[in-house]
Every structure is written in structure tokens, then in C-alpha cells.
Write a structure and sequence with these properties.
single chain, 116 residues, alpha+beta, four-stranded antiparallel beta sheet, globular
Length: 116
Amino acid sequence: MAFLDARPVFPGHCLLVPRAHHETLADLPADLVEPVFAAAQRLALAVEAGMGADGTFVALNNRVSQSVPHLHVHVVPRRRKDGLRGFFWPRQKYESDEAMEAAADAVRAALRDHAG
């Protein structure tokens, strides 16, 4: 199910939600992953076309910054020079190549531990 965000970043900003309650992406059953993201793809195309946008920003928060504890995907129409700069948070560099490799190793290890 999709509906307009009551406090949009830009007009046409939609939220896509599964009807069944799932709090985060990790809680979404495997058999719903494809339907939810296929719907997000379809909605992104519709928002872009319907709003005459240059593209869309598609985002999903998990716990942090998730103002409603129900899985929801934001589809925001974007236009060149619309004032948004990349993501909504400040970007930063790794302290070193070693710090970057340590982060990559930690994620790889977690993927191995949770493979399935």
C-alpha cells in the first residue's frame, strides 16, 4: 500500500508499506522481499513520471530515524538542483585505509555468520 507522506520532502513524496506489520527490513519475511521492492520500483517510476521529476530518492530507515515502527519505504521525487545534497546526513572519510579495511572485514564476517 502506498500513500503520500503528510510531511513531504517534496510534493509527491510517498510512503510504501506492507499491509502486514513488520517493524524493520530484517523482520520482513523472505517471501515479501521481492513483492515489496518490486512495488517500490513501480512506485518510483510512477512518482518520477507523475511529478515530472528527473529521478527519485528511495530510502528505508531501520530503527534509527524510523519515526514509525512499521517498515516503510520513502519514494521522493528529485529534480536537479533541488537543494538536497546526496544523502540527508554529512558524509565523512575513513580515518585510514586500515580503518576502511577493518569495517569491510567486520561486515564480511557478519555476512558469513548470518549466511542463509
